[in-house]
Amino acid sequence: MYHKEKSIQIKNSASALYNNLGVLRIAPRRLTYFTVVHANVVNMISASWDGLNYSHRQLQSKEPNVATSTSLIMQAAFCVLPSRDLLVVTSQKGIQMYESDGSIMVYWHALDTPETPTAQAVFARGISAVPDNYICVGVSSGAILVFDVPSKGSNITLSEVLEEHKESITDVASECSGSQECIANLVSADDGGNLCVWKSGEEFQLLNKIPGFE
C-alpha cells in the first residue's frame, strides 16, 4: 500500500516536458536522488529515506569551458548500468553525462547545429540505459546515438548511430530481465508515431518497425 510521505520543495517549477521527473534510490546510503527540469536548469535534490535531511543542487546546460552559453534542457534521466549510475541531461546544444550525484560532468557530446537558422529545431530527447553498458539518446534528426560507457572514468565513446527513424525521436525505453533469452530490449518512438524495436549488442539489430497511424 502506498502512503504519502513528507513533501520536498524544489527550487523552481517544473517545465511541461515529457518524463520530467527522475528518481534514483541509493540503498547503501539510504538516499534518493530526484531531478526536475526547469527551462535551462536541472533541479536536483538528495533526500534521506527518513525525510529529515535533504540538499539541493542545480545543473545548467552549457558547453564545457563556456561560462555564459546556456540552452533549454529537454530531459534529465538517471541511467542505471551494471557497474555505475549516471545522470544524463539533453538539451538544444548537446548531451551531458554526470556522476549520479551531479557533482562531476564526465562526458559532453555536442549536437551538429547549422551555421544559419533553419525551420528544423535541433535537440536531443529520449534517454535510456541498455544492457551491456550502453546509453541510447535520441535526437531531432530521428537518429539514435549509442554510447559505450566504461565501468569507470570518462572514456565514453559514441559507438553507433541508428538511423531508422525519419522524424524527431520522442522517447526511447529499455526493459530486460538480464536473461540471455531476452531478444528485444529497446524500443524507440518518433513524433510521427512510429516505433522501432531493437536488440542491443556490439551492433544493434532492428527487429521490427511498427508504423504510426496515417
Description:
Pfam families: WDR54 (PF21031). This protein is an all-beta fold. The chain has a single domain (22-210), classed as Methylamine Dehydrogenase, Chain H (7 Propeller), CATH 2.130.10. Helix content is 0%, strand content 47%. The chain contains no helices and 16 strands. The termini are far apart. The mean pLDDT is 91.
Query: Main sheet?
Result: 4 strands, antiparallel
Specify the CATH architecture: 7 Propeller
Strand order of the largest sheet: 1-2-3-4
Taking the alpha carbons of the first and last residues, their distance comes to: 42 Å
Strand content: over 45%
Structural class: mainly beta
| Helix fraction by DSSP (H/I, runs of at least 4) | under 10%
Count of β-strands? 16
Query: Which stretches are poorly predicted, pLDDT < 50 over at least 5 residues?
Result: none
Q: What is the CATH class?
A: Mainly Beta
Using brief descriptors, characterize the structure shown:
single chain, 214 residues, mainly beta, Methylamine Dehydrogenase, Chain H, four-stranded antiparallel sheet, 16 strands, 47% strand, globular, WDR54_beta_prop, WD repeat domain 54, WD40/YVTN_repeat-like_dom_sf
